[in-house]
Specification:
By secondary structure, this protein is mainly alpha-helical. The chain contains five helices and three strands; from the N terminus they run βββααααα. It has helices spanning 29-34, 40-49, 53-74, 77-93, 97-107, and strands at 2-3, 9-13, 18-23. A three-stranded antiparallel sheet has the order 1-2-3, covered by helices on one side. Residues 29-107 form the Protein HIRA-like C-terminal domain.
Length: 110
């Protein structure tokens, strides 16, 4: 794991052969979900969320994928469960049956 002076922390995933963003030093899961953190990153995220619906969906899916991958890399079962429970309904309500099926197959070890 590498933590930088700008507050961002990364972990290298040998399986993915990539660095994963773990934290940007400002956003906690509950604060982000409840919109309580008032900083530049959250204002930028709100701007994206109020933009084009396709861009919003891409941003949401990218964020969820990153959180799930980071939780797995850290072997953090509590955070993985949090993001898994948060992701599942998102995949279901956005007509992303293939994503939901992949997620379920992964949990079943297929």
């Amino acid at each position: 794991m590498v933590s930088l002076s700008n507050g961002k922390s990364y972990i290298f995933s040998p399986d993915m052969k990539a660095w994963l963003l773990l934290s940007n030093g400002t956003i906690l899961p509950l604060a982000a979900l409840q919109g309580q953190t008032q900083n530049k990153t959250m204002r930028l995220a709100r701007g994206i969320m109020s933009s084009d619906p396709n861009l919003r969906q891409i941003g949401t899916l990218s964020h969820l994928d990153n959180q799930l991958a980071a939780s797995l890399s850290l072997k953090s079962s509590k955070e993985y469960k949090f993001w898994l429970l948060f992701s599942s309904p998102v995949f279901g309500t956005r007509s992303l049956e293939a994503r939901l099926r992949d997620l379920c197959d992964g949990l079943l070890g297929q």
